[in-house]
Amino acid sequence: MNSEITIKLPRCKGCGICVAFCPKQVLAVDELGKVMVVNADACIACGQCELRCPDYAIFVDKKVKA
């Protein structure tokens, strides 16, 4: 399974909750205090980042390889 992660930066307050709950260290907080994808290939599309975000700023689009 592959996935696409979308981050709505205007909504992100940089709380780091998504980073903390990601089991594969796919996300990180940048110098500006916003979340960024640092290891997209490691994403297992578990959706923990999306579920835990209090500001609905991150979305995981699960794509099934044919």
UniProtKB/TrEMBL annotation:
InterPro entries linked to this entry: 4Fe4S_Fe-S-bd, 4Fe4S_Fe_S_CS
One GO molecular-function entry: metal ion binding
Pfam families (alphabetical): Fer4_9 (PF13187)
Every 4Fe-4S ferredoxin-type domain range: 3-32, 34-63
PROSITE patterns named among the record's database cross-references: 4FE4S_FER_1, 4FE4S_FER_2
Record keywords, A-Z: Iron, Iron-sulfur, Metal-binding
Protein's recorded name: 4Fe-4S ferredoxin
